[in-house]
């Protein structure tokens, strides 16, 4: 894992529904290795703490983040990011015997330092793990950080537990960055097969959108027993039932660069012209 730190390599473990499970396990094992080697008091923070809390991440962290009360020497290991901002006792927690920042402090640290999409993925996921948004806002208000406060405030204001995957957060971020009205998440749709839910939507305009994760159509994508063909047929029946109920969701695939602009154009075309004319790209939010 690092100089003097090793891990046992297993074989073929079921990664469940997380395509980045192997990267997450590697990052967590790196945190464990750092914990065992550090002698001075320390608290794991930022995306490292988010990992330990079980939060989703947009990308695996390149370094382990830790808060320590002293300045690192010039010979400090490059695989550890050290922070000196004090962590009050009520913002401490422990997970699997390792000291971490509280869930609320973790989200605030991420929101202050990470790109807004990355931070929003953490915040969305943290809400599903019991994040107290009011407490997180109080921690941000009391923070001495000078940079990133507007971005962090935006992240806390737009966090939504209804995003059930990082890509669903990505889709919502794309819409918000483009200046679209805030979408609802997990929009209920009554159908002949029962109530279905679409990832995001604007019910007042009858507009729904879904992220289509094509990886789930591969055998084993959601576990060893997962059958891709069965999943494809299930999704086909679901989509047909939604269409029969009078809806035509915009289906979005994972894209980058110019593809993001095309996603925005497809969605924007479904809004009434008077609403569309109000769209303005938020200059604070970089392209995903």
Structure description:
By secondary structure, the protein is an alpha/beta fold. The protein folds into two domains: 21-161, no CATH class; 167-276, Endonuclease, Chain A. The protein is built from ten helices and nine strands. It has helices at 21-37, 46-53, 103-113, 116-128, 133-142, 149-158, 166-177, 228-244, 258-268, 273-276, and strands at 43-44, 64-67, 80-83, 92-95, 98-101, 184-191, 194-202, 207-211, 250-252. The strands form three sheets. Strands 6-7-8-9 form a four-stranded mixed β-sheet. Helix 8 (228-244) links the parallel strand 8 and strand 9. Helix 3 (103-113) packs antiparallel against helix 4 (116-128), helix 4 (116-128) crosses helix 6 (149-158) and helix 4 crosses helix 7.
Keywords:
globular; four-stranded mixed beta sheet; 9 strands; 39% helix; three-stranded mixed beta sheet; 2 domains; 288 residues; alpha/beta
């Amino acid at each position: 894992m690092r100089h003097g730190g090793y891990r046992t390599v297993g074989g073929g473990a079921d990664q469940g529904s997380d395509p980045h499970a192997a990267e997450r396990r590697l990052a967590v094992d790196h945190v464990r290795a750092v914990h065992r080697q550090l002698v001075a008091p320390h608290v794991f923070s930022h995306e490292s703490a988010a990992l330990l809390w079980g939060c989703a991440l947009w990308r695996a962290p390149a370094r382990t983040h830790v808060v320590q009360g002293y300045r690192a020497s010039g010979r400090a290991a490059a695989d550890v990011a050290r922070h000196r901002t004090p962590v009050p006792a009520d913002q401490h927690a422990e997970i699997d015997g390792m000291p971490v920042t509280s869930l609320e402090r973790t989200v605030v640290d991420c929101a202050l330092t990470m790109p807004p999409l990355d931070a929003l993925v953490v915040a969305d996921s943290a809400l599903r793990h019991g994040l107290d948004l009011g407490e997180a806002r109080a921690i941000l208000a009391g923070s001495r950080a000078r940079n990133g406060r507007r971005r962090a405030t935006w992240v806390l204001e737009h966090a939504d537990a209804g995003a059930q995957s990082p890509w669903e957060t990505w889709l919502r971020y794309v819409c918000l960055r483009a200046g679209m009205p805030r979408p609802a998440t997990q929009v209920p749709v009554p159908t002949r097969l029962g109530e279905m839910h679409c990832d995001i939507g604007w019910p007042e305009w009858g507009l729904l959108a879904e992220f289509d994760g094509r990886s789930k159509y591969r055998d084993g994508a959601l576990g060893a027993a997962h059958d891709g063909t069965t999943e494809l047929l299930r999704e086909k029946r679901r989509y047909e039932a939604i269409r029969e109920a009078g809806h035509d969701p915009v289906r979005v695939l994972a894209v980058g660069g110019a593809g993001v602009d095309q996603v925005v154009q497809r969605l924007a075309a479904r809004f009434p012209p008077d609403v569309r004319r109000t769209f303005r790209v938020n200059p604070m939010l970089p392209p995903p």
